[in-house]
From TrEMBL:
InterPro entries: DnaB/C_C, DnaD, DnaD-like_sf. Residues 173-240 form the DnaB/C C-terminal domain. Residues 107-139, 275-312 are annotated as: Disordered. SUPFAM superfamilies: DnaD domain-like (SSF158499). Belongs to the DnaB/DnaD family. This is DnaD/phage-associated family protein.
Length: 312
């Protein structure tokens, strides 16, 4: 499997075959485990591990797993006793939308065998049936994907080499966990969507920019990515060029500041400023007079009380 292509195909498939949030998180967790296992055809993983990676409770996990199975995203088999279930990821990049809807196999091997049998027929026997959901372009796709189908049909398909794209994707996940915090199911979906839209290089560059500015907040990184996207900056070269232009503009402004300071302009002071200042002064003087009167009255009462006490 190609990690990046599978993710792209996954989000393309969501447009016509939507999933709940829990199912999306579980699919990503299973893909990450399978990638770490170097894309084994079938692999086992404990429920508690998947619940932790996907951020789901056990009941939510069971509903999400059932949804993925029923909608053709995964295949799994329960084992005896306390053994972990056996999982198999169904390649979404392998099928087109029409092929997926038509075949919907219980597992990839059976679906591939069916497609191989049809690919052996002549093009005359592949004329579309009005009741058939298969697209007219199926025959061409079968020819182009013949080698891939043979590999899919091989039951001894073990490990495949981890591609550069999948390694970069994992590196982006690990960078987030090292500098921003725990990568739960929601954040993994959010990070994967940004990678799907802009690529790993831009997302990683935005996270580094966030750290350079003393921040560890994903929303800050997301704002940077949104700004780049709105400006049409979709590559590192474009972003670096924009940053050079920005620094050049800042330097020009800093050089212009002393010139403005050397010839200061005196702006007229508005009348309301003087009126306000006068009112403040009058208010202050009035308060001072009141305080003096109060102090004098207090002094007179004190002298009077002492004279009365002396007379007694």
């Amino acid at each position: 499997m190609n990690y990046l292509k599978e993710i792209n195909a996954f989000y393309d498939r969501l447009e016509t075959n939507p999933l709940s949030g829990g199912a999306v998180s579980l699919w990503h967790a299973l893909m990450q485990v399978n990638n770490r296992a170097r894309w084994k055809k079938k692999f086992t993983v404990a429920v508690v591990v998947l619940c932790y990676k996907a951020g789901l409770s056990e009941s939510s996990f069971k509903r999400a797993r059932k949804e993925l199975y029923e909608k053709g995203y995964i295949h799994y088999e329960k084992q005896l006793g306390n053994q972990a279930a056996l999982y198999e990821m169904i390649s979404l990049d392998f099928y087109s939308e029409e092929e997926y809807c038509h075949y919907q196999p219980s597992n990839k091997t059976e679906g591939a065998r069916q497609m191989l049998q049809e690919s052996d027929k002549s093009s005359d026997n592949l004329k579309p049936n009005p009741d058939d959901n298969v697209n007219h372009k199926l025959d061409g796709k079968l020819d182009r994907n013949a080698d891939a189908l043979i590999k899919q049909n091989n039951t001894i398909q073990n490990n495949t080499y981890t591609t550069a794209e999948s390694r970069k994707l994992e590196a982006t996940y690990e960078y987030y966990q090292q500098h921003f915090g725990k990568l739960n199911g929601y954040m993994k979906n959010e990070l994967t969507k940004q990678i799907h839209d802009l690529g790993e290089d831009l997302v990683l560059h935005a996270m580094k920019k966030t750290l350079d500015r003393g921040k560890t907040n994903w929303n800050y990184t997301k704002a940077i990515l949104t700004d780049w996207k709105s400006k049409g900056l979709l590559s590192l070269d474009q972003i670096n060029l924009e940053e050079v232009k920005f620094k050049k503009t800042q330097n020009q402004r800093s050089r212009q500041i002393p010139n403005r300071m050397s010839t200061p302009q005196i702006e007229p002071v508005p009348d309301w400023f003087f009126m306000h200042k006068r009112e403040q002064q009058e208010k202050h003087e009035s308060n001072m007079k009141k305080q003096q009167d109060k102090d004098q009255q207090q002094l007179m009462e004190d002298v009077k009380s002492r004279l009365q006490a002396y007379a007694d």
